[in-house]
Design goal:
It is a single chain. It is built from 10 helices and no strands. It is an all-alpha fold. Helix 1 runs parallel beside helix 9 and helix 3 packs parallel to helix 9. The chain starts with 12 loop residues before the first helix and ends with a helix.
């Protein structure tokens, strides 16, 4: 009788590492961690749901930690506004991260979150320079609460959801929004990861280290480059296609 063995992620670890390096390189230049892309890639691997969440959050935190420092040094982070949003996003992120989800429930939820992320990325907005930072619109606070819950559930840091709405409300300049996104992703990722490790223990195996090394290198290089080096439209469309393909494949597998 022939036994079908599910392939392990370590057989493809260096391919994943190269992909992660490219994702970190491109997205760190714009203040993002690349969480949705990491999840789209890892969802096709043999990793468990908990390992996928922890790996994505670890990569998010590592990439945006350096980005946060770079934006802080350049005085692009408006701490008052960012901390106000984090006050609403961190509690649900921690709470949801402590919950144990069935593999099928997790991956279906991840597919839905990726589809929503693709939809949000399709929103058109102007990247105009704003001379003064505007007060946050009231509905940004409940939005931050929802994003925090999604971050804890899926492993997405939340910047991919937050930034378009900051642009739509003309809250600040592109660099201020990029800085806000970096801090938002960093703190939510650390909060979610910490809650998961305390509750469930450390799930990723040794396979995570090449991935962390790749995003560290990519993040360091990307944060030194101007985001103007990349075509935002092309990067956005590529991201939308990749995460939608991953979402469809997940739904086909688990529905």
């Amino acid at each position: 009788m022939q036994i079908c063995v599910k392939p392990k992620i370590n057989t493809l670890i260096w391919i994943y590492a190269l992909l992660f390096l490219l994702v970190a390189l491109i997205y760190s230049a714009a203040g993002f961690g690349g969480g949705s892309m990491y999840l789209a890639i890892l969802s096709q691997s043999a990793m468990t749901a908990e390992a996928v969440r922890m790996t994505a959050l670890s990569c998010n935190a590592l990439v945006t930690a350096n980005g946060t420092w770079q934006f802080h040094r350049a005085n692009w982070i408006v701490w008052r506004g960012v901390l106000a949003l984090l006050a609403f996003s961190v509690p649900p992120c921690i709470f949801v991260s402590t919950l144990q989800f069935d593999e099928r429930v997790y991956f279906i939820s991840l597919a839905v979150a990726l589809i929503i992320a693709a939809g949000v990325m399709m929103i058109r907005y102007e990247r105009t320079e704003v001379l003064t930072v505007r007060p946050l619109v009231w509905w940004m606070y409940p939005l931050a609460f929802v994003i925090g819950g999604i971050s804890g559930l899926t492993g997405i840091g939340g910047g991919i959801y937050l930034a378009p709405f900051l642009y739509l409300t003309k809250w600040g300049s592109p660099k201020q929004i990029a800085g806000a996104s970096a801090v938002f992703i960093l703190i939510n990722s650390i909060a979610g990861l910490g809650a998961q490790v305390v509750t469930h223990g450390w799930q990723p195996g040794t396979e995570i280290w090449p991935l962390l090394g790749a995003v560290l290198i990519g993040g360091l290089l990307g944060s030194q480059w101007s985001s103007a080096r990349f075509s935002h439209r092309i990067v956005r469309y590529i991201t939308i296609v990749i995460i939608l393909v991953a979402a469809v494949r997940i739904l086909i597998k688990y529905l």
